[in-house]
Request: fold
Amino acid sequence: MNSNFNIENFYYNFSCNCNKAQKKTFSKGQIITTYIQKRNQLCILLKGNADLVRYDLNGNRTIVEHFSKNALFGEVFYKVTTNNELLVEAKSKCTVLFYIYDKLKDPCTHGCEFHNTLTEHLPELILNKITELNTRIELLTQRTTRDKLLMYFSLISTRKLSKTFELPLSLTDLADYLSVDRSAMMRELKLLKEDKMVDKIGNRIILLYE
Amino acid sequence: MNSNFNIENFYYNFSCNCNKAQKKTFSKGQIITTYIQKRNQLCILLKGNADLVRYDLNGNRTIVEHFSKNALFGEVFYKVTTNNELLVEAKSKCTVLFYIYDKLKDPCTHGCEFHNTLTEHLPELILNKITELNTRIELLTQRTTRDKLLMYFSLISTRKLSKTFELPLSLTDLADYLSVDRSAMMRELKLLKEDKMVDKIGNRIILLYE
DNA sequence: CATAATATGTGGCTTATGCAACAGAAAAAA
DNA sequence: TTTTTTCTGTTGCATAAGCCACATATTATG
Reply:
């Protein structure tokens, strides 16, 4: 894996001469894309936060993925197998780059540097994606709400290199992300506080165990 | 996505002249690889069945993934973030191809056709992998054991193009795959039978609804 | 600013699910 | 073959977690 490649800087310097990328802006609450209608799409979130959301027949909402800056998403990553609607909703003001995957793969004849770099690094970007998905699976296979919460906190904590951090999701969304009932999650959160495992001040979580 | 490419035939005709691939055989129960020790590894399961298994601190076993013929696995797909042991266990006699991912990426100077084809098609193979993982996530976000079972059956049914099919996993393993208690799953299975939703004769499942 | 909408926090009640224990069937090993 | 091990099927009991309802806090919006 080429560790010299800095994704952060790369996206920041976005400029694409060819006509293969479309750049769009969305305001909070807008639907960025749907996976059933828009096939073969690859999207890059340049700015903002968004959720991949599924509504099932029982009315349950699940946050399948939570995207922040530089996240890759789109139907290429999710060849739809079920008939559930999959929507990407903007949680804040978002800037998104849209590609058609098949066109993206071919080398750019416009000498478009961004595009070529993207193609070149696509495998490793996709591998990062896989790692995220595997982490998500590990989270979801936790048997209890408590274990889900603790693992989720631990993941964020590791990512932020700190025992104290802001939740990137509202509690309502977190419940949908962990695939548990919100009120049950709140109860468990209270128990975790009582057991001196975590503390919570507003939006801020503090891990108290070693 | 290049749909002319037939993975099935491709693996079948495996022959690699270069020294980059290692081919090994495992008997049932053997550990094929561990993700903590073997970094940067990409494996192809040429023959047999295997499970990616995690044992957590509470002694719970989870089947993170179930691999059959042609499956890709290895630590490249699972950059380890937690300290849980991840083992790939052979469920039957297995033949496995091992690559070091970094070496695989570079074009082969030995004119090794298999290797070059593999490199060329890696992105789409990896995208297939992502689709599997997303399906798995959708399965795990089902809220109840009943819904997990029904979705699992539905997935197999779609794959086999039939309302009747053999379970590819034992019931014990299925419970670990769905991340539920085995006895609770058995109970739910009985209820599904009583409700005339599914029938089960030995290892064979028959879907009865519409 | 006022008012609406959404998010948080809590509790009662019910049910699904986990856990433990066991018996019989099936499969593997000796 | 016999013996051992693993898998299946079932039940009673305890409890985690779902569901509902509501009060308050916080955040959007006209």
Observations:
- Chain A touches chain B through 37 residues (CB under 8 Å).
- Residues 144-146, 180-181, 183-185, 187-188 of chain A lie near DNA strand D (CB under 10 Å from a C1').
- Helices of chain A lie at 7-12, 101-105, 113-140, 145-160, 171-178, 182-194.
